[in-house]
UniProtKB/TrEMBL annotation:
Function recorded in the entry: Aminopeptidase N is involved in the degradation of intracellular peptides generated by protein breakdown during normal growth as well as in response to nutrient starvation.
Catalytic activity line of the entry: Release of an N-terminal amino acid, Xaa-|-Yaa- from a peptide, amide or arylamide. Xaa is preferably Ala, but may be most amino acids including Pro (slow action). When a terminal hydrophobic residue is followed by a prolyl residue, the two may be released as an intact Xaa-Pro dipeptide
Gene Ontology terms describing biological process: proteolysis
Ranges where the Peptidase M1 membrane alanine aminopeptidase domain occurs: 229-442
Peptidase M1 alanyl aminopeptidase C-terminal domain location: 555-877
One GO molecular-function entry: zinc ion binding
Enzyme Commission code: 3.4.11.2
InterPro entries, per database record: Aminopeptidase_N-like_N, Aminopeptidase_N-like_N_sf, PepN_Ig-like_sf, Peptidase_M1, Peptidase_M1_dom, Peptidase_M1_pepN, Peptidase_M1_pepN_C, Peptidase_M1_pepN_C_sf
Protein's name according to its UniProt entry: Aminopeptidase N
Residue stretches making up the Peptidase M1 alanyl aminopeptidase Ig-like fold domain: 447-548
Gene name in the database record: pepN
Length: 877
């Protein structure tokens, strides 16, 4: 039997002992930090009187232990690799422990670690047990008082959760700061930061008139990169008051930027810790996409203060309770402060590519999993993004107003508690009177549901019969699925008028846009008084996270692209039209037949280009071809080379046919004036840069000059990076190489820009990409210990450079496996993430399957962390 055993939701038991209050003292030292913990413990009312006290603890050296002031004898307790047990304890008592830990050797970046010279923590999900012995589970909530002792010179700033209450000097050049957090919290929300940091400060007045001090702490050289995050934070605080009635609850809110961080950011109470890539921006160093990402993540972490912190999860199976809800909240916020249709298009196109792939792969799991080996592996697109889609469906089912009543009830009823997904859904059912029992299957069933739709218009009776059939494919551990409750938003677009027709169903007038509810395996909807033959517009706004199949002709898709009143479905019709053309071209490529461009696609694009639009960002999305990854997602057997060739062919054909239009578009949307990350400017840049991409695909001489000029103009990072990427991905090394070199020299001091410099090189389609990866891994700016670097170089190559990663000689797979093996020792969480492309072998041809599996087997020979063990075993099952 393996040492790595699964944990099951059905085994959940309340904790035997609760912690009422936690006092911590950290005496910081890189290799010998001392942590004293005083826990005020109390037996759970339902626990056995004789229950021993069992605390979690990993990689801790116990130095002292005492109960109610009495040192414990050696036979009164036991310490294992993962636990400290005290055999006999009273009903209520104080436990003192002192442990030693070594932050500088902590390359896993969980618990207390060093990032350059600063100290910081990451405790979610189970990092606190690497700091001290503790009931490290979210249903144990305590108030905290934390004293941090550090070196006055190298750690002038000492931070923790809550409010600062005391600070002072100590002998030997040391000093201390004490913090108190009055809000009971689970250990995963604990945070500590110490180092030579500088702050930017601002203020926010809450809806009840309280003043909150806002601070962003960074290294000195980054002080000029905090403005956007601060503005985003204030917008988020206001929005949460207005949209959800949620007010901030401390006098101080801090954000810290850290260079070495496994994830995007962390919502620790009052002290959010951010990956510097998710908080720092400057027009010269960050792209529009980064500005928008920062806004979204700042909002996300802030929103957790209520959805996650004030009301938290009972156990980690409920992770989506806080993550799905909070992603939904940050998406709603971003949609309101930006172009809403573009946000939705971006969300869905990412979701359908990445989450669908996860849900169809070997690690597919429900939004609420039944079991896990390593919870760190479950911070997934399914928990976050599919969880958000499920909350979005609830919000749509209830309507905005009732949903708000439900969320008010949820926060009021469960404030200060650790609860479950049922608790959340029950509130929604109570306020709406809806029966959500079938809906709950969204949380328990994995896999992407598929809907087969068919429609028939009856001229004689003026009726339209829509038939919907649903099925959810089998996923690991779930061979049989039950029908889901699927809300399908739809309209019928009249082919004569080009307008949405009135919808009458069972004699009821439903207006021109409605939601029909698919609950059975198969259901028929008979619309009456349908005045003209319609084309159905189904799943508007992506009203449910499903795959929808309807046998649209290309003419019908072109029609919807031109006429659908739903912007999202308009975009989707365009994507579907291109996908049909791509299918033919992929087949032609495989059969060695000459490729012919579908003129209907060219016409549709010409129409798009000739329209007057006031939303450049939407038009840019419409002009973008589906990514290779999304095209692959549509194929039963993925042929990476054919997909690449077919997509290139479409791009080049469109560029040839519509050269002048693209050139005009490029020229008309030039950047002028000072950079600002406003939706209008972002839209113009997106549109201009899409046009340039098309023109560069045929290496049009004017485009090359334009790209070179755009790079040299150095107006903002969005334009510079885009131009440089296009040049580096072209055959014009004579222009690209000096530009690349100049860029690398100019930004050698800025790790976040160097990340971009790495990514744009290793994503180039040319055959030398893999050699570049190996070469750049030796670059002084690269380090396997820095997760951002690993993602920028290895992650980008394996995830975005499909033709080169899937090389038939297996070198791409070998390279990834080599990295995974090293990371297994250094940083298990990152190892288990970066390996993802190798786990998706099932969809490729036999030769590639064998090569990928061989690498997985090679990794399997190592002494694996639980993280990788779980992923490898599931992938090879
Ligand atoms: N709760 C954090 C967020 O969603 C992410 C924490 C991820 N932790 C982890 N061990 N994967 O913002
Ligand atoms: Zn989150």
């Amino acid at each position: 039997m393996s040492e790595h055993q699964p944990i099951h939701l059905s085994d959940y038991r309340p904790p035997a002992y609760l912690v009422k209050h936690t006092e911590l003292t950290f005496d910081l030292d890189p290799s010998a930090t001392r942590v004293k913990a005083r826990l005020h413990l109390q037996r759970h009312p339902e626990a056995d009187a004789g229950a021993p006290l069992v605390l979690d603890g990993e990689a801790l050296e116990l130095k002292a232990i005492a109960m109610d002031g009495q040192a414990l004898e050696a036979d009164e307790y036991a310490v294992s690799e993962t636990e400290l047990t005290v055999f006999q304890v009273p009903e209520s008592f104080i436990l003192d422990t002192e442990v030693e830990i070594a932050p500088k050797d902590n390359t896993a970046l969980e618990g207390l670690y060093q990032s350059a010279s600063m100290y910081c923590t990451q405790c979610e999900a189970e990092g606190f047990r690497r700091i001290t012995f503790y009931p490290d589970r979210p249903d144990v909530m305590a108030t905290f008082a934390t004293t941090v002792i550090g070196d006055s010179g190298s750690e002038p700033v000492l931070l923790s959760n809550g409010n600062p209450v005391e600070r002072g000097e100590l002998p030997n050049g040391r000093h201390f700061a004490t913090w108190e957090d009055p809000h009971p919290k689970p250990s995963y929300l604990f945070a500590l930061v110490a180092g030579d940091l500088k702050k930017v400060e601002d203020h926010f007045t809450t809806m009840s008139g309280r003043d909150v001090t806002l601070q962003i702490w960074v290294e000195e050289e980054n002080l000029n990169k905090t403005e956007h995050a601060m503005a985003s934070l204030k917008r988020s605080m206001r929005w949460d008051e207005e949209a959800y009635g949620r007010e901030y609850d401390l006098d101080l809110f801090m954000i810290v930027a850290v260079n070495d961080f496994n994830m995007g950011a962390m919502e620790n109470k009052g002290l959010n810790i951010f990956n510097s890539a998710a908080v720092l921006t400057h027009p010269q160093t960050a792209t529009d996409a980064t500005f928008q990402r920062v806004e979204g993540i700042v909002a996300h972490e802030y929103f957790h203060n209520w959805s996650g912190n004030r009301v938290t999860c009972r156990d980690w199976f409920q992770l989506s309770l806080k993550e799905g809800f909070t992603v939904f909240r940050d998406q709603s916020f971003s949609a309101e402060v930006n172009s809403a249709p573009v946000k939705r298009i971006e969300e869905v196109s990412f979701f359908r590519t990445a989450q669908f792939a996860e849900d169809a792969g070997p690690t597919s799991h429900p939004v609420r999993p039944d079991s896990y080996i390593e919870i760190g592996n479950f911070y997934t697109l399914t928990i976050y993004e599919k969880g958000a889609e499920v909350v979005r469906m609830l919000s749509n089912l209830l309507g905005a107003e009732t949903f708000r009543k439900g969320s008010d009830l949820y926060f009021a009823r469960f404030d200060g508690q650790a609860v479950t997904i049922e608790d959340f859904v029950t509130c929604m059912a109570e306020v709406s009177g809806l029966d959500l029992s079938q809906f709950m299957r969204w949380y328990s069933q994995a896999g992407t549901p598929e809907i087969d739709a068919n429609g028939e218009y009856d001229y004689a009776n003026a009726t339209y019969r829509l038939t919907l059939r649903q099925r959810t494919p089998a996923t690991p551990g779930q061979p049989d699925k039950l029908p889901l409750h699927i809300p399908v938003r739809m309209g019928l677009v009249g082919t004569k008028s080009g307008r949405d027709l009135n919808l009458t169903l069972d004699g009821q007038d439903l207006g021109t846009d409605t939601v029909i509810h698919l609950r059975e395996e198969e259901q028929e909807f008979l619309f009456t008084d349908v005045a003209e033959a319609p084309v159905p517009s189904l799943l508007r706004g992506f009203s449910a996270p499903v795959k929808l199949f309807f046998p649209y002709s290309r003419e019908e898709l072109a029609f919807l692209l031109a006429n659908d009143s739903d912007g999202f479905n308009q975009w989707d019709a365009g994507q579907r039209l291109v996908l049909l053309a791509l299918d033919d071209l992929i087949a032609a490529h495989r059969n060695g037949v000459e490729k012919v461009m579908d003129p209907r696609v060219v016409d549709a694009f010409r129409d798009l280009l000739s329209q007057d639009t006031d939303d450049q960002a939407v038009l840019a999305e419409m002009l973008m071809l589906p990514s290779e990854a999304y095209i692959a997602e549509q194929q039963l057997l993925v042929d990476v080379d054919a997909i690449h060739a077919a997509r290139d062919f479409v791009k080049q054909s469109l560029a040839h046919e519509l050269r002048d239009e693209f050139l005009t578009l490029y020229q008309e949307n030039q950047s002028a004036g000072a950079y600002a990350p406003t939706p209008a400017q972002i839209g113009r840049r997106a549109l201009k840069n899409v046009a340039l991409s098309y023109l560069m695909s045929i290496e049009d001489p004017q485009a090359i000059t334009a790209a070179k000029q755009q790079f040299d103009a150095d107006h903002n990072m969005t334009d510079v990076r885009h131009a440089l990427t296009l040049l580096v991905h072209s055959s014009r090394g004579d222009i690209a190489d000096p530009a690349l070199k100049a860029f690398g020299t100019k930004w050698a001091h800025d790790p976040l820009v160097m990340d971009q410099w790495f990514t744009l090189q290793v994503t180039r389609p040319q055959a030398d990409a893999l050699d570049r990866v190996r070469y750049l891994m030796q670059h002084p700016a690269f380090s396997l210990k820095n997760p951002n670097k690993v993602r920028a170089l290895i992650g980008a190559f394996a995830g975005q450079n499909r033709v080169n990663f899937h090389r038939l000689d297996g070198e791409g797979y070998r390279l990834l496996a080599d990295v995974v093996i090293e990371l297994n020792r250094l940083n298990p969480e990152i190892a288990a993430r970066i390996i993802t492309p190798l786990t998706r072998w099932q969809r490729f041809d036999e030769a590639r399957q064998d090569l990928m599996k061989a690498e997985l087997e090679r990794i399997r020979q190592e002494k694996l962390s639980p993280n990788l063990y779980e992923i490898i075993e599931k992938s090879l099952a």
